[in-house]
Amino acid sequence: MIRFIEDPNERRNISREILEALTEWFEVEESREQYIRESADQPFWAAFENDKPAGFLCLNETGRETVELAVMGVRKENHRNGIGRQLFEAAKTYAVNEGYSFMQVKTVRSGMYEDYDITNEFYKSLGFKELEVIEVIWGEENPCQIYVMSLKNVLDTISARHSYRGKFSSDPVPRKDLETIALAGINAPSGCNKQTTELVIIDDPDVLNNVKSLIDPPVAQSAPAMIVVLTRRINAYRDKCFATQDYSAAIENMLLAIVELGYQSCWYEGHITDDDRICDKIAGVLGVPEGYDVVCILPVGKALDEIKAPAKKTYEERVSFNHFGGK
After folding, report:
1. Could you tell me which of 55, 71, 175, 211 has the fewest CB atoms within 10 Å of its CB?
2. H/E segment holding residue 125
3. What is the pLDDT of residues 188-228, one digit of tens each?
4. What pTM did the predictor assign?
5. End-to-end Cα separation, the chain, in angstroms
6. Which of 225, 176, 236 is closest to 200 using CA atoms?
7. Is 136 left (phi over 0), alpha (psi -120 to 50) or beta?
């Protein structure tokens, strides 16, 4: 049975009982006591078996969009019977209902300790993705691995995505995130599987500044990364070419992945493919060979400005059933 615990003293007693049973994971007394103190003031769930606490989980509500899975413990005799997953699902439901977009958890980097490797694999099995290693959290000998999970489903992401033309944070975008975004792009469908879309990821500041200097009027000048979309005109069958549809599907996939990962972007196509052919100049800087066209740039970064949804027509104005205008 999983139960949300409201009383701070009960929270403290349960966390102490479980953590003291896991002494090998919490060898440092100060660490264990800190977890016990903090758990009393945070959202807290406990699992019971025969009225005896079998495990607990508490969250740390530190940010507006992200909630942290602060600490979780399950008695060894109760391992591998689903208690950890039940605790997590209860906490995840709470986080979604509270409007959080992401959940994160910090743990020791994989490969350092067998127990933590098992724990990290458990977090991955829940749906957490590796984000980064922070060397300073627990000291250079024990760098901290951060795992993040999106709490939004794909329909939420579609609704939340809007073109962003504001300023970006200077924080670099981790290469893993850029690779995830690019993978979403090349996983898009293409006519007769001709795979006419290719991508160039720019995260080198010098290359990025060279490309930005070509864009006039300037756009996305503060973006810390950019994805350049290339296409090739390859006929799918007879004289039919679906390159435009191919790269459009790839771009939409990437825009959704960008928002899903907590970043923002904008589809800049006409701005660079107009009569002044900025796209050709970008191709020159990137060494794009003949036979490829640069058709779009996607800046990627954390938004600094407010994200505003544009005015849209109503659902009834744009959607019909069975015949045009049908209700």
Report:
1. 175
2. helix 114-126
3. 999 999 999 999 999 999 999 999 999 999 999 999 999 99
4. 0.67
5. 47
6. 225
7. alpha
In the numeric block, the tokens 């103190």 are attached to: 37
With a CB cutoff of 8 Å and minimum separation 6, the contacts of 189 are 246, 249
User: How many helices (H) and strands (E) would you count in the chain?
Assistant: 11, 12
Separation of alpha carbons 323 and 70, rounded Å: 54
CATH number at 155-300: 3.40.109.10
Q: What is the mean pLDDT of the chain?
A: 88
∠114-60-129 over CA atoms, to 5°? 50
Cβ(260)–Cβ(152) below 8 Å: yes
Which one-letter amino acid corresponds to residue 106?
Answer: K
Identify whether the C-beta of residue 87 lies closer than 8 Å to the C-beta of residue 105.
no
Amino acid at 79: H
Q: Which of 66, 68, 76 is nearest to 119 (CA)?
A: 76
Q: What is the mean pLDDT of residues 297-311?
A: 93
Q: Check if the beta carbon of residue 66 is closer than 8 Å to that of residue 106.
A: no
Dihedral over Cα of 298, 302, 308, 313: its sign: positive
Q: How many CB atoms lie within 10 A of CB 299?
A: 25
Enter the tokens of residue 46. 């406990």
pLDDT of residue 147: 82
Q: What's the mean pLDDT in 139-165?
A: 80
30 — pLDDT class (breaks 50, 70, 90): low
Q: Nearest 5°: CA angle at 214, between 212 and 220?
A: 30
CA 218 to the chain's CA centroid? 28
Parallel, antiparallel, or unpaired: how do β-strands 102-108 and 129-134 relate? unpaired
